[in-house]
Amino acid sequence: MAKLNMVEAINLALREEMERDNRVVVLGEDVGREGGVFRVTDGLQEKFGADRVIDTPLAESGIVGTALGMALYGLLPVAEIQFDGFLYPCLDQITNHIGRMRNRSRGRFICPLVIRVPYGGGIHAPEHHSESPEAILAHTPGIKVVTPSTPYEAKGLLLSSIRGHDPVLFLEPKRIYRAIREEVPEGDYTIPLGKARLVQEGKDVTIIAWGAMVREVLNAAEQLRGDKIEAEVIDLRTISPMDVEAIVTSIRKTGRGVIVHEAPKTCGLGAEIIALINEKALLSLQAPIERVTGFDIPVPLAKSEHYYLPNSKRIIMAIKKVISF
Amino acid sequence: MGLFEDYHPLKGKTFQILKPDGTLQPDSKPPISDQEIFHLYQKMLFIRLADQRALILQRQGRMGTYAPIWGQEACQVGSAAVLQKGDWVFPAFRELGATLMMGIPLKTIFLYWMGNEEGSRASEDVNVLPVSIPVGTHPLHAVGLGWAARLKGDAIVTIAYFGDGATSKGDFHEAMNFAGVFKTPTIFFCQNNQYAISVPRSIQTASKTIAQKAMAYGFDGIQIDGNDLFAVLVATKEAVEKARSGGGPTLIEGVTFRFGPHTTADDPTKYRKDEEIEPWKPLDPMIRLRLYLKEKDLWSEEVEQRFTEEAQKDIDQVVKDAEAVPAPGVEEIFKYVYAEMTSSLKEQLAYLKTTL
Ligand SMILES: Cc1ncc(C[n+]2csc(CCOP(=O)(O)OP(=O)(O)O)c2C)c(N)n1
What pTM, to 2 d.p., does this model score? Predict the structure, then answer.
C-alpha cells in the first residue's frame, strides 16, 4: 500500500471518484493547468479534461454560486477556495442559498456539493492565509463541516462528502498537508460523516481536537505519559453535525476535558462543546473544562505567529490544570 | 478631441508614446523633460533592484512569500509620479514600486514581507493604505474615500491598483458602479500582466479589453501600453486632472507582463512556456527608456553601473536595518485590535505571557 501525504490522498480520492462517477467536476482558481496552488488537483485536468477540471475566473462567490447551479442540475461539483481567508465572500451564497435550498423548496431542490478549503495557520503565510472559520460555518444551518486530520482520514471523509446528499464544507488543515505520511489504500473506502474518531484511549482526561490540532494534542499526550497521565484523544472529524455521543461517553469516563482549537476563543467551537457537555454530562465533571485556542486577534504575521497557535506546552498546562483541580 | 475620446476602448487602440525601440510615435512628444525622464528611470531601476533583492532574500530564507513587480515598473512609477501629496493610494499586494514612490520606506516594505508586524506600521503623512491581499476588495475603499472627499469639497483623487484577475470579483464591479453613479474622483489602475497566478487573461473575461468595462459603468476607460512610461504618465495625469476637477472616475488598463513568478511560492513553468515570455522581453519598460536616454546622452553603461552600485549599497543598508528590527513582542499583536484593549483580550494576553 502506498504511503501518501494528505495532498496526495485527496488527489487520489478525487481521481478515483471522478473515474467512478462522471457527474463529479472540480472547479476553482488555478485548479486546472496549475493543479492547484497546493497541487491537490495535480494531473486531474490532464486526465479528465478542461470541462471537468475547470479553471474559473477569480471570483469566490461566483465559484460557489455557480457550483450550486451545477448541483441543482445533477452534477457533483467539488469547488476549491484557494485559501481560508477568501472564503468570506462565499458566505452569502453558503448561508443564504446553499444551506437553505433543500428547506426552501420543501425537499424538491437539493445541492449536494463540496467546497474544499485549505485552512489554518502554521505555514508562515502572508495575511488572510491562516484563518480557521469553522465556527462560522458550523453556525450555518444546512451545511456539513468536515476536517480531516490525517491522509487516510482525508480520503475516506472526502469520498463520503462527495457522495452525501448535503452540501459539505471540507476544511483541509494545510499545515499538515505534507507533514504526515501514512498508508492510504487505493480503491473504495469511506468514513461516515458525523462520527468522531477515538484516536487514543485514556482514563484521566478527554482531549477534543480536529484538523491540525490533533497532531499537537498527540504530541502533548505523549509527553504526559512520563507524568503517568493517560489522555483520551478524540478527533471530531466532522464539526457539524458533531458526534455528541462520543464526546459525552468519554467525558463520563474521564470526568475531565480539554478542547483544543486554533480558531479564536470567543464563540469558538470549544464554547459549544462545553455547553453540550454541561447539558448532557454535567454531573460527571470533576473539573471545569479547559480551552486551548487561538486568541481573539487577527492571526499575526509570520514572525509572531507562534504566539498565536496552540502548542503542546499550552495543551499540557491545560491538562495539568484540569487534572489538579 | 481629448485622449479618452481618441482612445475610446471600443476603437480597439492601445495608447503608446514611446515605442519599444526607444523612438517616439509619430506626432507625439515626451510629457516631461529629459532630465525628469532620467530621474524617473533611476527610480524604476532602483525599484527593480529592490524587487530582485526581495526575491534573493526570500530564497535565502530571510523573507517570507513575496510578490515581485518585475516588468511592471513603468505602470507603477508613471502612475504614482503624477499624484500629489494629498492624494490617496490603495495598493494590492504587488505594489512595491507605487508605494515606494509615494514615500513608504523600503525598510517598512521589507519588514512586512519578512513577516514582522512593524512592517504593517503605516507611515505618518503618507496616504497609502496597507497592502490588500484579498484580491479586488480594495477599489471600493478608494471609491468611498474619494466620494467622502467630494462631499467635503476637497480636490483630491484616489487611485486603486489591481490586476486583471481582480476584475472578475464582484467587489470590483460594485466599486466601478458606485464610482460611476457618484462620480467619485477615482482612478482604477489595472495592471494587466496577463496572468492571475496560472490563469490567463482570456479566462478572466470574455471582454476584448479590460478598459472597455468602463463603458458599462458610464465613464472613461483607456487601454495603454503599460510598459511605456510616457503613456502611463500622460494617461494617468489626464485621469487625475479630470478627477480633481469633478469629472469623475477613469479605468486605465496598463498592458504589461509579469516577468517573474506570481510569488516566490509559485512555479510558473507549470503554466507558462518560455516561448510565451520571449516576445515580451524586448518590450521591457527599462529597455526603451535606456535607448531613449542614450540618444539624449543621458544614459550609458557606466552611468547604469555607477547607479546600480550605489543603489545596491543603499539596499544593503536597508536590509541590514530591517533585519536589525527585533521581532515584535506579544503586546504588539494584541495592542491594535481595538481602540482600547478589551478586558477579555487583556486576560488572554496575561495568560499568553504565562505560557512563554
Ligand atoms: C479574493 C482572493 N482570492 C484568491 C487569492 C489568491 N491569489 C492571490 S493573487 C491571485 C491572483 C491575482 O491576480 P491579479 O488580480 O491579476 O493580480 P496579479 O497577481 O497578477 O498582480 C490569487 C488568485 C486572493 N489573494 N484573494
Answer: 0.97
